[in-house]
Specification:
Residues 119-138 are annotated as: Disordered. With 138 residues, the protein is mainly alpha-helical. It has helices at 3-47, 56-126. α1 (3-47) packs antiparallel against α2.
């Protein structure tokens, strides 16, 4: 491959690597957000724990309904955290693959540069010696 093609491939691979890293950062942020949401729901569940109070049957029924909804929300949040973890793993693998691709292109560029230097040095060695013009004193 010529140098222009390798440079173009390198630019594309660099752009892909940057996009993969951005996806990885977004996945990490989503995971942190879902984990925080799960923690807040768990805190709400603990805050609505049944307490021995004389609120009557209606108050207990309302609290039980609210707790049941919170438990469903907690289950859904746990599922979202699990999905966010899977997205994070996939994004990390994509980022590593993009980095490997970019490194391979960089190695190809370095190899092409070394071969060009070697060719140039060999051409200089194989070139006929240049005769120096000697001017005799007149």
């Amino acid at each position: 491959m010529d140098a222009r093609t390798l440079q173009r491939i390198h630019r594309v691979r660099t752009a892909q690597l940057n996009l993969a890293r951005a996806d990885e950062v977004r996945a990490a942020a989503a995971l942190a957000s879902e984990t925080e949401m799960t923690r807040r729901i768990a805190a709400l569940v603990e805050a609505v724990a049944p307490a021995p109070a004389s609120t009557g049957g209606y108050g207990m029924a309302g609290t039980a309904l609210f707790r049941e909804r919170l438990h469903r929300s907690a289950d859904a949040a746990a599922f979202r955290v699990e999905q966010a973890e899977q997205r994070m793993l996939r994004a990390g693998e994509t980022s590593r693959a993009a980095h490997r691709d970019q490194s391979a292109v960089e190695k190809l560029i370095d190899r092409a540069r070394r071969e060009a230097l070697y060719r140039e040095a060999r051409d200089l060695q194989n070139a006929p010696p240049q005769a120096k013009k000697r001017h005799d004193p007149c």
